[in-house]
Structure formats: C-alpha cells, structure tokens
Amino acid sequence: MEWRPISIEPTRAQRYVRGGFWDDQTLGSLLADGLRAAGSEPFTVRSDREPFRGRLDDVLDLARRVATGLRARGMGSGDAIAFQLPNWLEAAATFYAVALLGGVVVPIVHFYGPKEVGYILRRTSVKGLVTTSTFGHVDYVANLDALRASEAGLPDLEWVSLVGAPSRDGYVPFADLGHEDPIEAPVAVDPAAPALVAYTSGTTSEPKGVVHSHRTIGAETRQLGAMQRDGPPPLTGAPVGHAIGMLAALLLPVHRGHGIHLIDVWDPGKVLAAMLDDDLSAGQGATFFLTSLLDHPDFDRVRHGALMPYIGLGGSAVPAAVTERARALGIECSRSFGSTEHPSITGSGPDDPWDQRCLTDGAPLPGVELRLVDDDGRDVATGEAGEIWSRGPDCSWGYTDPALTTSAFTDDGWYATGDIGMLDERGCLSITDRKKDIIIRGGENISALEVEEVLLRIPGVAEVAVVAAPDVRLGEHAAAFVRMLPDVEAPSLVAMRAALDVAGLARQKWPEDLYRVDALPRTPSGKVQKFVLRDQLRSDGS
To answer: Is residue 1 domain-resident?
Structure first.
C-alpha cells in the first residue's frame, strides 16, 4: 500500500499522550479486551438469508479461529485484508480477525460495483478478500472474475473466501477459515502503523482511501463512546463496510460493553417490528434513518418513542425541522459533525441545552482544534462563514493516494474539510454548506441548506436537496429535488416559492426548477450525493 502519512510534530503527539487520547493499545487488543469483558452480551443479525442469534463470546471465538486461518494462508501483520459483506456475523468476525492478526482492515461497502471494488483492491494492495457470491442485485463472483480478466487485473489479490456459498474452484469457503485453532493473543504491532483503510465517496471520480492508525481509530472509539447516552441498544442498518456503520456496530458497543444488533436491509417496517421484539432503539446516524421510521405508518409514538429517548444525528447537515419534529414526539436529538477523515470534530452531550444540541453542530470535542478560514487560509471572525479546518487525536493520517493527502492536509497537520460553517459566541459550530455545493447565481452565493430548511417545513415534504443547475444567463441557479410522503402530491413551483416568500428568503435564492423524485442518490452512510443530481442536470436536465 502506497502511503505517506502526514507529519505529527512531537509536541502535539506528546500532548495527545498526556491527555490520554493516545496509548500503545492496538486495535486488536482494544477489541479482544472489550469482547472478552462483554462476552455474555447478545450479538444478533436480522436477515432473510443469514440470520444469527448468539453472544459476543461466539463472535470472538470465531474471529480468533479466522485469524489463525488467515495466518495459515500467509497473511500477517501489516497485510491489507478486505471484506465486502452485508451486515452479517462474518463481516464482524472478519473485521475482528484481521485486527487480532495485526493486519490492515479494509471494509468495502456491500453494494459497491466492480469499478469501485477494483480501484480499492488495487490501490490498497489487498492480499485477501472475504465476500459472498451474490446479495441483492450484486453478483460479487462475476464482478471479481471480470476484474481478474481485465487488463489491469488484481495483481496483489492472493485468495478470496466466500460466505454462505457452495464450494467453487479458486475460492475458499469461509467455513474453512474458521476450522483452525484460535489465535492465542492479539499480535503486537506498532500503534502508529495503519490499522484501517476506510473508503469514502465524495466529489472525486474514485473513492478516497482514508488511513487510520491504531492510535487514531482507538482515540475515535473512546471519543465517540464518551458522547453516548445509556439507553436501549441500537439496531444498526448503516453498512458496516462504511465508517458510520463500522463505528456504530463493530467498535462502540465493544468499547462500551454492550451487545451488537445488525440488520442487513434497512426496511423501516421490519426495523420498527424488531425494536418492539427486542427492546431496541434505532434511527441514529444520517437523518434518513430517523425520518424513514417516523414517516412509516407502523410508527407508534408511545411504544417506539419510549425506545428512542436520545438520538445522535450526523453524517450530513441536520435540518432543524427534523430535530424539532422529533422533539415534539418526545425524542431528544443531538447533532454532531465529522467525516471519515476526522470522525468526531464537534458535538454536544445529552445535558447540553437544546438549542446547542439541535440548532448547532456542537463545540469542538476534547483534544480537537478548529479553525474557520477564508479562501486565502486566513482565520475569519466569530459569526463569519469560513471553511472548517480541524486536527485532533482521532484525525486520520492521510489517504492512500498521496496527491489527495497533499491537497487536503496542510504541512502542520490541519485537515481542510471542504465544509463551510460559522462559530457563535459560545464556540459552537453550525454547518452552512459544502464548499463545492454553494450555488453562485449571477455572482451571488446561495446557501442550499438555508433554502432546504424552509422547503422541509412544507406539509408532505419528506426530503429535499437543493443543488446548482446550469444557467446560460446567470451561470447557475437553484434547483430543488423533493421526495414526498406516500400519497402526497408535490407542491407546485408557485406554492414552493410562496413558502420561501413567507419565510423571507430573497427572490434570488428561490429555486427555479422543481423535480419530484421517489428516492435521492445516497452514500452508504445515508448522505445525499448532490454531485449526482448536479451531473444529471448538466447532462440532460431530466
């Protein structure tokens, strides 16, 4: 794996050690200790194809055996080993096994296609892959066969293991990996070495491989764990192949000594039923997960609401309309801000005031430094908008692509997030836009988030995304994509503009196009992919 980590000056590294953010514990030892301590806690998978009910003890035992099976096939510390699986037992066992072996875990979102998978396997020099034959519309074996036969090939990939599939030539049954004696103890490795490569989609044509060391992912696990509030355990539907699902399902519960509950297909009706069956919470993460439950006809304000006393939201901008709606149902929320590169930048605790938790994205978390800068890299004043720069003990050390590292990180370790925000007098951050999502209409900047906040208050609107559409006269103008609640007609363009007029938004900010859609394109974490919508408008306007 080609990787040139950013430099961490000794004084800052010493500060992270003194503050208790960094230690010499590896990801493998953190997980082994946590799984043993919480061994009697449940581990469940809700799946039509690979359901499972057991305990964390069972997962740890399988992971220890798989670690030995990986070693028997030539895998060792520092080797990149990937998995592309739905939210199944085998995904967790593989993640833990690679960590126990001292390898580099490379989770791949289960619905990625051959283009993304091929890039990830080659860029990370993956030596071993655990996947399955098919799931949903994806044929993983056919994709791999095509990649191997392509001109670029998969030169570093030595073997592939299949879960829940008949034995076939060239593939190792996953059950064979678990036939070995369990590994005795986690392999000792340098805590500053890579532990995890998490791929994230964005505005680039290829996914970005974010490299976390044992220290940074350990710091993030402890950081995020300290923000959690006790309550019913969550049911996680975000893919464990993505950073949000991985943290929520595979790391935080182990660190906090709680059970793990997964579902492999996010079906709001099934999620609501599972909540009542096993006294689970749900809806954490991107607002899509929460609103899909609140919108469903099976949602019971009393029974389900009691299981959702506190919901943490993040992963994309969180509209105030969503948190206000939840509060009216007795569900307290808290917004936070972070990314795969720097997962926990700002946030609020359960006891912080409501306006801080739900109308801002919170204050910098312990150990985190924050700057808001203009286009020339100069700090802006309180109350002024600027690009958010951050650094901290849980910030990654760069990308697998050195060119991306150079463009996103400064020489003194600041990560340029590409997000725009403002700090208030309390030091709380509010995200106002993406740097590249600002609509520039005739030289006037329009905040898409500001327009979206108003449109979300129109009765019947479930979701909205405002993006830049090409305009021959003005360069760009705003276009709105709306998803309506079932059996509700979309507002007309005239009605939409009337709502914006009542809200006091300048006419220049009003969308000039309105499109009703059944679904919005999303990243694995639930974030709307606005660049897809912009590309559609540029190509044919449909």
So the answer is: no
Whole-angstrom distance, CA of residue 171 vs CA of residue 297: 44
pLDDT for position 452:
92
- Whether residue 542 is predicted with pLDDT greater than 80 in this model: the reply is no
pLDDT above 80: residue 433? no
Is the pTM higher than 0.85? The answer reads yes
Q: Is residue 250 part of a domain?
A: no
* Burial tier of 412 (Cβ tally within 10 Å: 0-12, 13-18, 19+): exposed
Q: What is the DSSP string of 132-187?
A: ESEETTEEHHHHHHHHHHSSS--TT--EEEEESS---TT-EEHHHHTTSPPPSSPP
Q: Which residue has the tokens 């909540």?
A: 275
pLDDT tens readout for residues 397-429: 999 999 999 999 999 999 999 989 999 999 999
Amino acid, res. 305: G
Is 2 part of a structural domain of the chain? Answer: no
Closest CA to 339 of 251, 258, 406, 431: 431
Place of tokens 């004084």: 11
Residues 388, 502 share a domain: no
Q: How far is 380 from 371, CA to CA, in rounded Å?
A: 8
Q: Looking at residue 524, what is its pLDDT? A: 79
Which run of H or of E encompasses 432? Answer: strand 429-434
278/406 same-domain check: yes
Whether residue 541 has pLDDT greater than 60:
no
User: In this structure, are strands 332-335 and 346-347 parallel, antiparallel, or unpaired?
Assistant: unpaired
Tell me: do 385 and 418 sit in the same domain: yes
Asked if residue 482 and residue 408 are part of one domain, the reply reads no
Q: Which two tokens stand for residue 292?
A: 């899909």
Domain membership flag for residue 22: no
Distance CA 185, CA 447 (A): 52
Half-sphere exposure of 333 (CA within 13 A, CB side): 29
* Structural domain count, the chain: 3
Domain of 340: which CATH number? 3.40.50.12780
pLDDT at 493 exceeding the cut of 60 = yes
Tell me if 119 sits within 8 A of 95, measured CB to CB. Answer: no
Question: Which one, of 342, 71, 78, 30, lies nearest residue 190 by Cα?
Answer: 78
Instruction: Say if residue 356 is in the same domain as residue 387.
Output: yes
pLDDT of residue 228: 84
Please give the pLDDT value at position 280: 98
Ramachandran region of residue 315, left (φ > 0), alpha (ψ -120 to 50) or beta?
A: left
Domain span holding position 502 = 438-539
Same domain flag for 61 and 163: yes
pLDDT digits (tens, 9 = 90+) for 160-171: 999 987 778 889
Q: Distances from the Cα of 189 to the Cαs of 63, 78, 186, 215, in angstroms? A: 18, 8, 9, 11
C-beta neighbour count of 440 within 10 angstroms:
13
If asked whether residues 298 and 404 sit together in one domain, one would say: yes
